[in-house]
Specification:
D-Maltodextrin-Binding Protein, domain 2, 4 domains, three-stranded parallel β-sheet, alpha/beta, 554 residues
């Protein structure tokens, strides 16, 4: 699944001392700090050091699709040895599970997100419970509970991934209690919501800031998020509903799949396999609660300020004081932005619409004052002249003039089909292709070919061995997949009209022949793999519609 990441552009004005000509000299044997995955890949391509440190081959395999093919993985047995290797520059960069020490290292996003959601048994018996859970999740998002709970448990970091989003929660209603069916009726009758929890009653986990279940009451991000979730659930169905954690290390998934446990805790991994099959095919999932975005880290470079023309120590000292001040005040993360907003002073942020502000409001300090602008040039000027603390635009700001960083809000993209049995085989075929494009690094290839486009991978399906995600056999295909194979055409809905194809720049220029940009390039990768399985004579037919009537098309 490809994602669109919104970014906050922050200006950083460098010191200008008219009496001094200065040089910023990195420490011996190094260049500037690596601060993005794109910069890391450029360094890997350039060499000579192409070594990266990991704690396991599985960790490397997860990240390989977003890294240069020239990377040389090196495995370490513990975190401290890995830290030493980065510091000594034995490895160019590294990855650990969790958040690296940001005072010691330059940490930056891997652009790969592992989502988390509640998981249930498939089938109609879970429909009402799933709708109730989704309603509660949307309300926790809109209420800013993810941000509040994450900030209460440093250094936990959260990324919002919205598979369900409404600025009006009433449009995502709770099912009516009096007509509830299936598992929701069981919850309401028994006054208990039973959730699978990893551990045993005698051996509960302590995951530090993620969650410490050894204490009573449990503390950390996940226990406190569940408290926020249950507050919304009880507001709809009664304060007497109890949360019952069913502690199991083995066998629990089978009890979820037969309905004897209503659902999992939301921290269980979404994208992996169960009994050799994608969970996406064997489970039902709620709206995604949040995502873990793993971070690469590299050596933080020390800089020495000297004067390139004169030995005037006073001049060099003044320049260093200026740069140190700018470095201290520079904002490079959403957390730093919120800290600045909380501390007072300038709390104004610029947006191009009220809708843009509302889309990220839940991840910003409540002290922020939104200012709406009519154009990007006006907004840019307001950031440069200091009347705004920061701003948001759709797309990628000019990195030569602004410091750009993530909002930690991800907008997902996926193929959409009609519900029901007719689409089952086609969805499995689509999933099989997507897993293979991910594993082959084709999202990265399409993004790299279309700068400044940036893609974030969010894996709701993941298998190191693509054979674990098979294509449905053509000879037994049913429903929409059979229609595709019989007609030799895969018909996809596209936004536009034959006389007015869109030109979205690096995202996709459909006016050009052949079409260019990230999405046309990705669809070429996709169709190459689809045709490799079902025949090179399968044609991709775009059905251009300005009004998106997705129900009509496969």
């Amino acid at each position: 699944m490809a994602m669109s990441r919104q970014a906050l552009p922050i200006v950083w004005l460098f010191c200008q001392l008219s009496a001094c000509l200065s040089a910023v000299v990195p420490d011996v044997g190094s260049t500037v700090s690596i601060s993005s995955r794109q910069a890391l890949n450029a360094a890997l391509e350039a060499g000579p050091n192409r070594r990266m440190g990991f704690l396991s081959a599985a960790n490397f395999n997860t990240m390989a699709p977003v890294l240069s093919k020239k990377v040389v993985p090196v495995y370490f047995t513990d975190t401290e040895e890995l830290y030493k290797a980065v510091t000594s520059e034995d490895v160019l960069a590294a990855l650990i599970s969790g958040v690296p020490n940001k005072t010691m290292f330059s940490a930056f996003s891997s652009d790969l997100v592992s989502p988390r959601a509640f998981q249930m048994m498939p089938g109609s018996a879970t429909n009402d419970l799933m709708h109730a859970v989704d309603a509660a999740v949307v309300r926790t998002h809109n209420g800013g509970d993810l941000l509040r709970v994450a900030e209460a448990n440093p250094p936990f970091e959260v990324t919002e991934v919205h598979t369900c989003r409404s600025l009006e929660p009433a449009k995502v209603p709770f099912p009516i209690a009096s007509t509830a069916t299936g598992l929701l009726k069981d919850v309401l009758d028994q006054k208990r919501l039973r959730v699978l929890a990893y551990g045993t009653p005698a051996d509960k986990p302590d995951w530090k800031q993620d969650g410490n279940y050894e204490v009573d009451p449990p503390v950390g991000f996940w226990p406190e998020y569940m408290a926020a979730f249950m507050k919304e659930f009880r507001a709809a169905y009664g304060n007497d509903i109890q949360l019952e954690r069913v502690w199991m290390k083995a066998g629990g998934t089978d009890m979820v799949l037969n309905g004897s446990i209503h659902m999992t805790e939301p921290y269980y991994i979404y994208e992996n396999l169960h009994n050799g099959t994608l969970k996406k095919w064997s489970h039902k999932f709620s709206c995604i609660v949040m995502g873990y975005e793993q971070q690469f880290f590299s050596k933080r470079r020390a800089k020495v300020i000297t004067d390139a023309v004169t030995s005037d120590a006073q001049c060099a000292a003044a320049l260093k004081t200026c740069e140190d001040k700018q470095l201290m005040n520079r904002i490079t993360t959403r957390e730093e932005l919120n800290s600045k907003l909380e501390s007072g002073g300038n709390v104004k942020m610029g947006f191009l619409s009220q809708a843009n502000f509302l889309s990220v409001q839940s991840m910003l300090s409540t002290k922020v004052e939104p200012v709406i602008f009519l154009s990007k040039p006006q907004l840019y000027e307001a950031v440069v002249n200091g009347s705004l603390r920061a701003a948001l635009i759709s797309g990628v700001p000019d990195r030569t003039n602004f410091t750009v960083f993530s909002t930690d809000v991800i907008s997902p993209r996926a193929f959409q089909t009609m519900p029901g049995d007719r689409s089952v085989d086609l969805l499995k075929a689509l999933d099989a292709v997507i897993v293979r494009t991910h594993n082959a690094g084709e999202l990265l290839a399409a993004a790299t070919a279309n700068p400044p486009f940036q893609a974030v991978e969010v894996h709701t399906c993941r298998a190191d061995n693509p054979g674990a995600v098979p294509f449905p056999a053509a000879s037994t295909a049913t429903g929409l997949l059979k229609d595709v194979l019989d007609s030799k055409k895969l018909r996809v809905l596209a936004s536009g009209t034959p006389g007015n194809y869109p030109n979205w720049g690096q995202d996709g220029n459909y006016k050009a022949t052949p079409m260019t940009g990230f999405w046309p390039d990705y669809m070429e990768f996709f169709m190459t793999r689809f045709r490799a399985e079902y025949g090179v004579d399968i044609v991709l037919e775009r059905v251009w519609q300005r009004a998106l009537r997705a129900r009509r098309w496969c």
